[in-house]
Amino acid sequence: xxxxxxxxxxxxxxxxxxxxxxxxxxxxxxxxxxxxxxxxxxxxxxxxxxxxxxxxxxxxxxxxxxxxxxxxxxxxxxxxxxxxxxxxxxxxxxxxxxxxxxxxxxxxxxxxxxxxxxxxxxxxxxxxxxxxxxxxxxxxxxxxx
Length: 145
Prior knowledge:
Elements: H1 3-15, E1 20-25, E2 28-33, H2 46-54, E3 60-62, E4 70-73, E5 78-81, E6 97-98, E7 103-109, E8 112-117, E9 122-127, E10 134-135, E11 140-144
Antiparallel strand pairs: 1-2, 3-4, 4-11, 5-7, 5-10, 6-9, 7-8, 9-11
């Protein structure tokens, strides 16, 4: 993510009533925290931004007790949609086989829709969130074995 894009996001948070904005672009994640009590702009922790920029990107983290299974986590905070449109069937259900890169769900943040894809092939063991639920970046969404 280039510096101009980060500055634009900071200015947006400063002008809006947004309290927190998390943006992921490739292997870069930027979190900007606004301060509703401060009229001059957002409050930014440069140390946290640098840690996020240096942190490795990981969509699946192994469970401690279940070797070979993985937890798919939310790359961003937002509203989770289990189907591509209202009334449509869910992308996946527990027990379904998935291929690497297959869409599992969508997270909506500020009217931007980001597809969460399967990091590996396998079976969906469990779905840990409900359709329409607010999720946080890093929150466990599904388990794939």
